[in-house]
Amino acid sequence: MITLSSEQKQHAFQQLRSIKEQFAARHWFPGTSGNLSVRVGDIADGQFQFAITASGKDKSVHTPEDFLLVNENGVPTDATSLKPSAETLIHCEIYRLTGCGAIFHVHTVFNSIVSELYGDQGYVPVQAVELIKAFNIWEENARIEIPIVPNYAHIPSIVPEVTQSLNPSIPGIVLRNHGIYAWGADSFEAKRHLEAFEFLFEYVYRMDLLRK
Ligand SMILES: [Zn+2]
């Protein structure tokens, strides 16, 4: 296991704290839902560590028990009484598949409704909306398909669905009627991607209403 410095850990916790505060202000963590993680240190021989929000905490307040460090299997690497979120395994898989630096997961009304609306088809289609550029897709009239995977109560069963459906050129995946995982090279980019996805989901939702 790679040894991380105390500064590296503190820096990661500080980043998560700042993102947590901003997303909480947008009401993106209803009922203690959602989770945030930032990778700390490099990925070496498939091994890595990341800081993640602890399970079941009210994310609208700051406490000393908000975050913990886990390894690529979702197992805590420091002595702690905190439990990682049940969904940590999905973070592990996204880090493994993409090599990204940060992953943010939120439940919103728009991502839930749109994922249900398009769930049978397996993706949310979006075309020619300016914010697609937030994903570094610059072509005119670009059309993207945001993957949707089934949501199971048994989290380990969701992992192979993510493995199968994740599209490396789209930095997000939606769990049907549950929420989105968005990621990026660092927390700045992951936040930009998540904001763009949420804009696009609201756009799709409202456009669908107008067309009826
Ligand atoms: Zn969730």
Automatic annotation (TrEMBL):
Zn(2+) binds at H105, H107. One of its GO terms (biological process) is L-methionine salvage from methylthioadenosine. Pathway: Amino-acid biosynthesis; L-methionine biosynthesis via salvage pathway; L-methionine from S-methyl-5-thio-alpha-D-ribose 1-phosphate: step 2/6. One of its GO terms (cellular component) is cytoplasm. InterPro entries: Aldolase_II/adducin_N, Aldolase_II/adducin_N_sf, MethylthioRu-1-P_deHdtase_MtnB. Residues 14-205 form the Class II aldolase/adducin N-terminal domain. Keywords: Amino-acid biosynthesis, Lyase, Metal-binding, Methionine biosynthesis, Zinc. Binds 1 zinc ion per subunit. It comes from the Bacteria. Its cofactor is Zn(2+). The keyword Acyltransferase does not apply. Its EC number is 4.2.1.109. GO terms for molecular function: methylthioribulose 1-phosphate dehydratase activity; zinc ion binding. It catalyses: 5-(methylsulfanyl)-D-ribulose 1-phosphate = 5-methylsulfanyl-2,3-dioxopentyl phosphate + H2O. It is an enzyme of class 4 (lyase). Catalyzes the dehydration of methylthioribulose-1-phosphate (MTRu-1-P) into 2,3-diketo-5-methylthiopentyl-1-phosphate (DK-MTP-1-P). Belongs to the aldolase class II family. MtnB subfamily. HAMAP family: Salvage_MtnB (MF_01677). This is Methylthioribulose-1-phosphate dehydratase.
